[in-house]
Every structure is written in structure tokens, then in C-alpha cells.
Amino acid sequence: MRAAVLHEIGQDKLEVLDDVEAVGFGPGKVKLRVRATGLCHSDVSAMSGVLPQPAPFIPGHEGAGEVIDIGDGVTGLSAGDRVLVCWLPACGTCPACRRGQTQLCLAGFMNAGTPNFKRPDGDVFGFAGTGTFTEEVVVDAGCAVPIPDDVPFEIAALIGCGVTTGLGAAINTAQVEAGSSVAVIGCGGVGISTIQGARVQGAAQIVAVDPVGSRREAALRFGATEAVAPDGLADAKQRITAGEGFDYVFEVVGKSVTARTAYENTRRGGTLCIVGAGAMDDNFQVNMFELFFDEKRILPSMYGGGDVLRSYERAIALWRAGRIDLESMITHRVQLAEINDALDQMRTGEALRTCIEL
Question: Which residues of the chain have pLDDT under 70?
Fold first, then answer.
């Protein structure tokens, strides 16, 4: 079957091959036919080495498709079912799951160290234990979440990562209050979803911050009340908050420099929410006096900061009701053979979200 493979960490191009086989099918496993998958910035971060991932590997974790077969012991799924791919399934039994923090379950991360593909010359890993830049993939049953018939595959794929992450940061983690002021730094797919989440929560002012003009324009269409380049944030802070700072600031880039900017633009007693996934050697620093004196809440948000199955249901309900726009987030559609064009479009900021159709 065909799949897009990264041979070595640090390469910026994928090779589309037709000699890849999905392996590992057996008890507790499900084989899926991937129909649509989104290109998420985390895929690029794994390719560059910012996020740890063994290689060679197949990127992709934001996918949807159909069940081909189920292994022994799998319940609630049947061949032909339409599903989205959950890259961080909850085991239900670990301490995090028992506390209700299923987004912190480590079971899914354990899958990342086990190859679920192979080629004639050796094993191939799937990113985050999945790997959806391929026609077929074998995953744990918990990674296959049934979706209603009225949800298109490309919409389900977005909900599988970027939409859930962004909406959840505003709704679950920060719990944005109605009438509040919000700034969102980084307006790719996750940032746009964060903006939509803040709008759903009733924020009065939502300032989108991004260096790319097309993304700023998109942010206005999705609910931002204004959009500025990074050098315009100070002026927006002064105009909107009289220099005090925003009630909520979301960092959706994954870099310490933008996290520091976000901290400095959060009002005393306000909330800084870290949504971007960054590198292990990129350290964010605050001094002990400002930490005490400013009393700013610093809240990291992992995969939307809540139960992902409930978050999926909420996203579908909001989409059905017209409260969030998911179709317009897909600005580009490509075939698997064009994956490197899609990567270039993401790196330049031309694409908001690219759907790879298989």
C-alpha cells in the first residue's frame, strides 16, 4: 500500500512509497482504511525533531476512515464503521484516568515506540502510535472512535486533533468567561479553533496575533474582533485594556519567546494558557517575584485539557448547530502524492489546514 515516509529525523521531505504494509493486527487491535487526514504542525515538529519520535516513521495523527477488521476482544466496533482516529486514547485504569484526567493518560504514548508498519528493508513507526499518511493503519481499538453518518471524514479528521485541542483550551482549560478580553498568539488551525472556542464562550474582544497576513484575515472570519502582526500587540493591549493586559492569552506556537510575550500581555490575575507543543530544551522562564506578585495563572493545555470523547461530541454538536465553522478551516485539499507541497504550504503559512484525501 502507499504511505508517506520520513526516513531520518531532520529531513524536510517525505517519500511516498507503495511497498509499506500495516502490521500488528491482533487482539485488541483495529485495522482502518484512512479516507482523510489533516496536516497538523505537530507532524512537522516530529519531522524536525522538536517532538520526540523514532524514525523511520509515517507522520499523520489527525485522521478518519472506515474499519476494515477488528481483532479478538474488540467490542463496540464492526467492519464498515466510520471512525476518527484518537491519537491519545485513554486506558481507563491508570491513576490519571481514574482522576478524570484522561488527556494525561500515557497509554497512547507507549504505542509510539512500537512499529505498526514495515517495508522490505525493516520496521517503520507511526507518528504518535498512529501514522495516518497512509492508506491503511493498525491501531489500538481505543484509537478508533465511531462518528455519526452526517459527519464527513475531513471534518472528523480535524476534530481528531486540532479542533479538539483549540476548542478545549478555551472551554476546558482556561474556561474563558463571557465579556472577557482574549489574545491568541499563533493563528494556524489550532489557533483558529481557540478563537472559535473563545467566541463560543462569549469573549467580548478576541485579538488574533500572527505574522502571516492571510492567517490574520482568516482569524477575523472565524471570530476574532481584530487581528494584528506581532509588532501590533502592544498597541492592541493599550487600546483594549488600557495597558493592563488581557484577561486570557493563549500561546499556540510552542516557543518560549512567544510564551514570554504571552505572559507579559496577560493582566495581573489573568490566565496564560500554553497550547503550543514545543521542544524539550526550550525553557520558559519567569522570576520568582513576578510569579508571586502578578498572580497570573499559567495553565498548560494538553489535547484540549479534558475528556477527549466528550470533547469530540461537543465539537460535533457545535458544528451541527452552526456555532463553529469547520469546513472553512480546510483551505487546501491534496492527494497523498502531493504531500510535500502541503508541507511547504504549512511552513509558509499559506495553508490554514490541508486535507489529504486518500
Answer: none
